Amino acid sequence: MKIHHLTAAEALESLGSSLNGLDDAVIEGRLREFGFNRLEETRKTSALLLFAREFLHFFALILWLAAGLAFFAEAQQPGEGMQTLGYAILGVIAINGCFSFWQRHQAEQAIAALQKLLPHQVKVIRDGELSLVYADELAPGDLLVLQEGDNVPADCRLVEALALRVNNATITGESLPKGRDAQPSDAEDIGQSRNILLAGTSVVAGEGKAVVFATGMHTEFGKIANTLKTTVKAQSPLQKQIARLSHFVALLALALGVAFFFIGQAIGLTFWENFIFAIGLIVANVPEGLLPTVTLSLAMATQRMAKRNALIRNLPSVETLGSTTVICTDKTGTLTENRMAVKQLFLDGHYCNPDQLGRHSLQQHAAFLGCAALCHNLKRIEGNAPLGDPMEIALADMAHARGMRIDYPKIGEVPFDTDRKRMSTLHDTPAGTMLFCKGALEMVLPLCRQIAAGNRIETLDDGHRQQLAKALQTMADQGLRVLALAYRPLPEEIPDNPEQSLILAGLVGLEDPPRPEVAAAIGQCHRAGIKVIMVTGDHPHTAVAIARQIGLVRSEHPKVIVGDKLKKLTPSQLQVALDADEIVFARVGADQKMQIVEALQRKQHIVAVTGDGVNDAPALKKADIGIAMGKAGTDVAKEAADMILLDDNFASIVAAIEEGRAVFDNIRKFLTYILTSNIPEVVPYLAFVLFKIPLPLTIIQILAVDLGTDMLPALGLGAEKPDAAVMEQMPRSQKETLIDWRLLARAYGFLGLLEAVAAMAAFFFVLDRGGWEYGQILHGRQPLYLQATTACLSAIIMMQIANVFICKQRQRGLLGTALLDNKLILSGILLEIALILAIVYTPWGNALFGAAPIGGEVWLFTLPFVAGMLALEELRKWLVRRFKLFPLRAEPARLRKSGRTRTGR
Predict the structure, then answer these.
(1) Rounded Cα gap, residues 661 and 725, in angstroms
(2) Which residues does residue 652 pair with via DSSP β-bridges, in sequence order?
(3) Where are the alpha helices (DSSP H) in 314-460?
(4) Left if phi > 0, otherwise alpha if psi is -120 to 50, otherwise beta: which for 741?
């Protein structure tokens, strides 16, 4: 038999213990056998290996190869600037690797955070004496002494209990404290047994003794920790996209390098000329600044999110949040305030709220308010809020607010237990000894003979009973927990069973109220095409009622799946059930929450999960993005999560999603921007090989663009504010890639070609003014050649200044775009101008980048090309808008007309 099926004496005997506890010799042996009462730490990957991985991913390997080729070329043919190129690429690798390691390296602290929830010292009986020992020294068979306010250090079975209630929220997610006693239980699930206390929970009322039967990793707590260890986090959508982008860029660069190497061979270039040419093409097509720009853009997005109370722990989670299609949210403490409050009363046959029960009603309802104020086990400490059951705190606060501030001495108590579902306290009052009782109506009503009706006392008849039953149902339909309050005066000689011939004073309905801003946040999620599913350990009736209040459920009959039913569903049945437009999961356990997440992921959803308890941690880690509460959340949840809500405000998720959606679009903006400059960097090399002209752009000048002038404006595009319409669009499809044929066509086939034309035109403009003729050989240090390459470089940078404004919007024209709202872009442009002027007009700039001063006529010559690119891009955008070519993602409103959304199909 399981331990919770046994009697208290049998449970002690089965563990070789007694009411005197264990002796030291037995404890020492059991600690050797079962280990200490602590959670095993996860075997961590060494920091050195994690650091090395930042330099060994695919894109980094491409850069390593490019650097190696550059150094090899310099060794074979010195003086071509290849050594400078090699060092520059190594610098890129080092900066990006170190920054990524600093941002992404997270020590495995989830297990340590679990340990923090366990008490450090506990009271036990050993050798018949009460002792204080460290919690990690507990062994199976130890006899714990527990009182109100104590945390439970191990899984244990009660052997004695007096009015004991426990808060299981960190394990089961249930918001209401549960009564516990020492009687045998028929429950199959040990976690639902009334005589079991689980590690990590806390005693909110009463006292008792319990025998330890599981410690460390063998506890339910430990099983959750083990789940965290074995749960592997999948790659984020952005990480997958960057991997695809890296492969694409690598293949494109290598293919072009190899192809034109053979073209050079075919037209008679020497091997080393071809080799230098091929490396130049590879370098020109590898955007060295891509990874630093992506990483820095994500880091800046995390800073913006932090200002909106969303703390991002893992950089890729920024974009993952933006592509979320489903949010699985806990109820208690996430959608609700995690506090009990009196919402409705039923007095004298009428409903009213507490505010309608003013101080003038004190005399009329004195017995009702007196019961609320006195029938509890709260501990009051001077100057501090009362300690104890949140439900009892809510009742006492309601009575005190109505002016019932009495503190009659308690002279006796009939404690609460799960069978009786009620409790009574006896008090010495000026009117004599009074009994006050509160509990479930079905348990209190049979004890009542009379009912209070204002200042009158009436005999309780069938009409009253029907009226009370109807009131109970009405209040329960609102998701309220309904309690009956009753009282009676006691004779001088108190009977053995005082709970009889009671007078029913009224009904009180309590709720854990929704956060006031949640309803608006849920509505925003619906408009953004994001499905929200409540997953809670609470009662289904309560869950549905709260869901209705916040607008999560609108239909008459939503789909409700309880934990017991979920256990019986096959994976395919669960996936089909998740197609329901409105679905609520109630009474679910930690493993079941993760089961729901896995089912949604099999349906190709990007899943975000919110939570605050230990029970939420496995699902938080398994989800595409885990969102923990910053204030009410346990350390376990925070360490397992990707994002922490600093204000515990569900509405902050919406703000974070808005920022996350902007990230993907912003990355595409700066990809367009930096890829555009690849064409004017490649074309000079093609012209050099195919038409046997002087090389218009040197490798070091390419680096001046890729790692110098382009970096800050690209970062500015990565920091663009979310577009006003971003939350009116459907979540992007997982098939939508960072680079598609439309982006390449625009960057390479349109904007890049325009820049290449301007760059080559400026190069030949300078050569022509200097008297150069086709076929004439120019040496690398001749002033005319240096001026011509400088003109080519300057034209590219001027075109890129215009391009940064072009890339702010894919479809909206310049007149409809806020051009001066991004200070980082404006700063980038000023830096870009300062850098090119320093390269052109300072001796150190000339020496480092192989440049020479150019006249004002060169700048003027380039201006029409800049204006032409702006005009042609405006024409392209107008055609796209006019003929609805390549539309952006569909808006939810188009699908809501049929009552469906893409995420709810």
Answers:
(1) 11
(2) none
(3) 317-322, 366-374, 390-401, 441-444
(4) alpha
- Phi, psi (5° rounding) for residue 97? -65, -45
* Residue/partner pairs of 466-474 with CB below 8 Å, 24 or more apart: 467/349, 468/346, 468/441, 468/504, 468/507, 469/441, 471/346, 471/351, 471/507, 472/441, 472/507, 474/351
Q: What is the pLDDT of residues 501-517, one digit of tens each?
A: 999 999 999 988 888 88
Half-sphere exposure of residue 505: CA atoms within 13 angstroms, side-chain side: 22
- Domain edge (last residue) among 212, 230, 248: 230
Who has greater pLDDT, 38 or 887? 38
Q: How confident is the model at residue 462 (pLDDT cuts 50, 70, 90)?
A: very high
End-to-end CA distance of the chain: 46
Range of the domain at 671: 287-306+658-882
At 565-588, the pLDDT tens digits run 999 999 999 999 999 999 999 878
Categorize the per-residue pLDDT at 891 as very low, low, confident or very high, splitting at 50, 70 and 90.
Answer: very low
In a domain, 502, yes or no: yes
User: Are residues 642 and 533 part of one domain?
Assistant: yes
How would residue 887 be classed by pLDDT, with cut points 50, 70 and 90? low
Give percent above pLDDT 90 in the chain: 31
φ/ψ of residue 493, rounded to 5: -95, 105
Q: What is the largest CA-CA distance in the chain?
A: 125
CA–CA separation, 334 vs 546, rounded Å?
A: 12
C-alpha torsion sign, points 726, 730, 734, 735: negative
User: Distances in Å between the alpha carbon of 92 and those of 25, 187, 471, 780?
Assistant: 63, 62, 71, 27
Whole-angstrom Cα distance, residue 141 to residue 258?
74
pTM exceeds 0.70, yes or no: no
Residue 157 lies in a domain: yes
Q: Which of 280, 213, 196 is nearest to 5 (CA)?
A: 196
Confidence bin at 322 (pLDDT 50/70/90):
confident
Ramachandran category for residue 386: left, alpha or beta (phi over 0 → left; psi -120 to 50 → alpha): beta
Question: Is it the case that residue 904 has pLDDT exceeding 60?
Answer: no
Angstrom distance (rounded) from CA 687 to CA 679: 12
Q: How far apart are CA 158 and CA 211, in angstroms?
A: 6
Whether 574 maps to a domain, the answer reads yes
Bridge partners of 180, per DSSP, are 164
Statement to judge: residues 452 and 554 lie in one domain? no
**Last residue of one domain, picked from the residues 648, 682, 701:** 648
Mind telling me the catalytic residues?
330
- Of 698, 804, 675, nearest to 253 by C-alpha is 675
- Same structural domain for residues 301 and 423? no
- Whether 62 is in a domain gets the answer no
